[in-house]
Amino acid sequence: MQKENVKSEIKTYLISAIAVLAMIISTGCFKPVLYDPKENRILHHVALTPANVDESIRFYRDGIGLKVLIDMDLDGNWSGVFNARSDKLRSIFLGDPDRPGSGIVELVVFEGGHDKLPELTAPANGFFLISFVVDIDETLARLKDLGFAKDVVKQNPMPPIPTDIALVRDPDGVWVELIPFAFYEAGANQDI
User: Fold this and answer.
1) Which residues, 6+ apart, have CB-to-CB distance to 32 below 8 Å?
2) Distance between CA atoms of 154 and 31, rounded to whole angstroms?
3) Residue 27 — very low, low, confident or very high, per pLDDT cuts 50/70/90?
4) In what order do the strands lie in the sheet with 175-180?
């Protein structure tokens, strides 16, 4: 009986995942790109569970510059799959529709809420940060205008490359690393 429950949970999750993918492709907000999975490992998305979804949308959309690709409610066996408090969730995909292989930030809001993680003051096991390649000055200016650039760390962690990176925290305290195009290009073109 337990094996059947697991199969049912997996089936529910896969049906929901297929529905999300169909919605992404059918809305035209995501251009499918063919990759050879044996040659390329692609990070599709990172899911965050924000305390205040509207603030997180403002941070990632208006501050970082991502676009809302999908905003939909999903019914599924989330209590069975994720031990969530409800089988209803809201999923917001944010990304760059012009660069479909660049990854997505998903904001997940479970009906009934979710537990808050303790505030971290130093690196710990588990999730650490999200990195974006952006124009740092433009992005920091937008974040400052939105009230999100309170504790910015800006420095050059790798002196062979003559440029700074910046770190800022999202509304839930997640470190977000901003990497300038020059740093990214220099690192891609030399051994560091």
Assistant:
1) 25, 100
2) 34
3) very low
4) 129-134, 175-180, 165-169, 153-155
pTM to 2 decimal places: 0.74
Q: What is the DSSP letter of 100?
A: G
Collapsing DSSP to helix, strand or coil, 21 comes out as helix
pLDDT of 36-82, one tens digit each? Answer: 555 656 677 889 999 999 999 999 999 999 999 999 999 989 888 88
Same domain, 100 and 22: yes
Domain of 104, CATH number, reads 3.10.180
Q: What angle do CA 128, 134, 137 make, to 5 degrees?
A: 105
Cα-based torsion angle of the residue sequence 190, 35, 67, 105 in order, rounded to the nearest 10 degrees: -80
